[in-house]
Hints:
This protein has helices at 17-28, 40-52, 67-80, 104-132, 143-147, 153-173, 194-197, 200-207, 218-229, and strands at 8-12, 32-37, 57-61, 86-89, 135-140, 178-185, 240-243. By secondary structure, the chain is of the alpha/beta class.
Amino acid sequence: MLTFNNRTALVTGAGRGIGKAIAETLARHGVTVICVSKSADSCGATAAAIIASGGKAKALAVDVADGAAIAKASEELLKEFPTIDILVNNAGITRDGLLFRMSETDWNDVLTTNLTSCFHWTKLIGRPMTRARWGRIVNMASVSGVMGNAGQANYSAAKAGMIGLTKTLAREFAGRSVTVNAVAPGFIKTDMTTDFVNNPEASARILEAVPLKRFGEAADIANLTTYLCSEEAGYITGQVFNVDGGMAM
Ligand code: NAP
């Protein structure tokens, strides 16, 4: 069992997939989890499931592509919770297409939702965290940000940006015992990958590049993320962890 001393976490994209698994795993370790997603229904369902299992959670619908909405939500949360000790920047979208066919809207939507959101959340939640001199930040990157992926110029740029942001903030916050790490999932079975996973030709093509020859589960990402948020991971910062069945060796 990992050690969490009654910590409070904010997990974005906690309504479904990887974020939901992270929220539930942290809650099983006694962490109070603020579950953020775009729709009130999805974060509400995650928070309700945590509470029904005896955990502590709060649901909050915030569009992370809207910096003003993040500022308003943070201000209200910091009145309710004296410190938010753990921040998991996990919300993300894809708008895939080859570069010559990619619209500026698709470029901007992915950069704003996946990368600029981390800038806003970390600036607002990170300030009291550094003042408290303990914190854990985990940014959900991707194998696309590590290796590149044809058809994902916007997404891989955003995810590579998260890796740079992670390394810089790890250096900026280290003196305050706030660690900042990135997790880079490969192909994980969630709503985001349903189209590939359920298409036999596409999944066979993808699995050729995966040495472990299977798709990952949301729990594979949640387990590592939970460890990185624990007391035990206090000497790990500025790192990128590939959880991808061996794709990016
Ligand atoms: P998912 O199943 O599509 O879930 C995405 C979550 O993000 C949802 O809860 C969604 O909210 C939330 N979200 C999206 N846009 C948002 C916005 N503007 N404001 C607030 N919340 C928003 O995705 P996933 O597969 O779990 O992916 C989670 C993270 O892992 C993403 O950053 C993704 O890029 C990364 N990742 C995933 C894979 C993979 O194979 N699945 C691989 C590498 C990296 P609603 O529920 O309200 O829609």
